[in-house]
Specification:
By secondary structure, the chain is mainly α. The chain has a domain of about 100 residues: Arc Repressor Mutant, subunit A (Orthogonal Bundle), CATH 1.10.10.10. The protein is about 60% helix and about 10% strand. It has 6 helices and 2 strands. A two-stranded antiparallel sheet has the order 1-2. Strand 1 and strand 2 form a beta hairpin. Helix 1 crosses helix 5, helix 3 packs across helix 4 and helix 5 packs across helix 6. The chain is globular. The chain starts with 7 loop residues before the first helix and ends in a 15-residue tail after the last helix.
Length: about 150
């Protein structure tokens, strides 16, 4: 019997969890401000100039309420702040505080170190090829017909 072949989204999800778990463990070891996996994901989709909660929720693929809870937890930790949106009097932008910028910079350095560890395990060529494939523009999601059952 052949083992079930996992699909690409499953493999990409497992790869993402590998990085997230290693990053969270490294931050914990460094006595950094504790963050949840959802809060960590929020940091990765936040624009430098700030992002609305609705846009954060869309980018994360979560409800607005979930994004809102993550934002407020990070605001209580002093990593994020809310500021008026210069483009709309009705909206507010979420952005990093100076402490949030330091935390983001620390996380970026840790991710670079993790990528090097991965290159040690899989080989530099494999990691560079993976990066190159993921950086290519994929275009909009295609329309694919659902296969009929036999």
């Amino acid at each position: 019997m052949h083992p079930t072949r996992r699909n690409l989204p499953q493999l990409l999800g497992e790869a993402r969890r590998w990085f997230d778990e290693a990053l969270l463990a490294a931050l914990d070891e460094a006595d950094a401000t504790p963050v949840s996996p959802t809060q960590l994901q929020l940091f990765t989709v936040l624009d430098e100039q700030g992002t609305t909660v609705s846009e954060l929720a869309r980018r994360m693929g979560v409800t607005r309420q979930t994004a809102h809870q993550a934002v407020h937890g990070l605001m209580r930790s002093g990593l994020l702040e809310q500021v008026p949106d210069p483009a709309s009097a009705r909206q507010r932008l979420i952005r990093r505080t100076p402490e949030g910028e330091r935390a983001h910079s620390r996380a970026e350095s840790l991710l670079e170190a993790l990528e090097e560890r991965l290159a040690d395990r899989l080989g530099r060529e494999a990691v560079d090829a993976l990066r190159a494939a993921l950086e290519e523009p994929w275009g909009p999601p295609p329309s694919v017909a659902v296969p009929t059952q036999r």
